[in-house]
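U., I forgot to send this yesterday:
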Amino acid sequence: MTGNPAGSRARTVLAVTAAATLALTASGCDSSSGTSASSGGVVTITVNDEPAKTDPVNRKFFLADVAAFEKLHPKIKVVPHEGQMDPQTFAAKLAGGQLENVFYVYYTDPAGLIAKHQAADITPYLSAYPAAQQVKSTLRKVFQDADGHTYGLPEGNYSMGLVYNRALFRQAGLDPDAPPTTWAEVRADAKKIAALGHGITGYGDYSKANNGGWHFTAEMYSLGGDVAKQQPDGTWKADFDNATGRTVLTQLHDMRWTDDSMGQRQLLQWADLLQMMGAGKLGMYLATADNIPTIASQYKGDPKDYGLGPIPGGKGTLAGGGGFMFNPKDTPDQIRAGVAWTMFKYENPDRITSGDQRAAAAKQPVGLPEPNIWTGAAAAAKTAADKKLANEPVQNYAPFQQALPGIPLDLEPPQAQQVYAVLDTVMAKVLTQKDADIDGLLKDASRQVDSLLAAQQ
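Result:
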């Protein structure tokens, strides 16, 4: 990671070396985005993911990278657009010729786009970029079809872990260097933290604005379960009305109502737990690494007070992120140019160190354990650069770093946000109603999710 967050999604800002130059021929064909090569042989491509003006540091970085790329490749002109791919408007933009030549997608998008032939096959263009093979295979497969053809390039990833307050751990007599690794340990530690009093909550969880369903999914994965499972015929069905789902909800119910370690305030959404952590009133919650600098910058927490441990249970962790795909109406020259740009900006280990240097100079976070798309020599280069240039307390994240390679990464379910909205209700009732019918809630939610998934297939 080079420490350039955009909103809540951390970005990896990398570049290709001068050796990876391109010989591009002129093209007079328009792509669906309305761009074309000039008579002088310059290939023009539109790309999205330019940070908004409200994010001046990363916008400056982005435009500097455009200039550096165009200097390295004088036959390519990059036209940046703000924003990313919106699934609600994608089809209309593609049909209307408004889709960028290179566009950002989340990891939940590629399979559907590939199946509908709404992205270009870039397999023939990747042989010039051996660094692409150093990206984690699990992330590369997100952009591949069943035959191994590649339709996109990963940019970054995240996975869920346990953010915890090291200061409260010490006060409760717990070891801040040994966060809980099972849900039974989470429950025991939460009771000790809540016993400190003064309005301190041992463990926090969400139940509103789709965040509750998101966390329920992460908790299912942590125990080796699923929320939706693909059937032999390719369709999807809900897969949480089972013993694993009951275990997740029973644990939360007992922590809330028997132990009183989750506090009386419920129906929490994303910012609530960060605010509680920043105020020193929360012991633990599930989150991604980029929550920690946000707690420090927006909610006045001290970064040294926070640790990151592996997700309890350790049988799986919810992983996400995104990358770039290519307009199916691109010309071959535009695909070559788009791949060159994406490799330059996001997928080359040779600028990991300079990226960290740039981020550190701009007081952007350096040293968070994710996003990290790399393996092998590239991963070693990232580790060395982060260690040398870190402005985050990297030693506090060691439990997460050490455990992550052994924990399977599980992507979000299909129709994730709609599924999460259904599961919000389940979480809300368990955390606000002492006599909640867990079996009934799971059964009703399963029927609703089955209907959602069937309608989209």
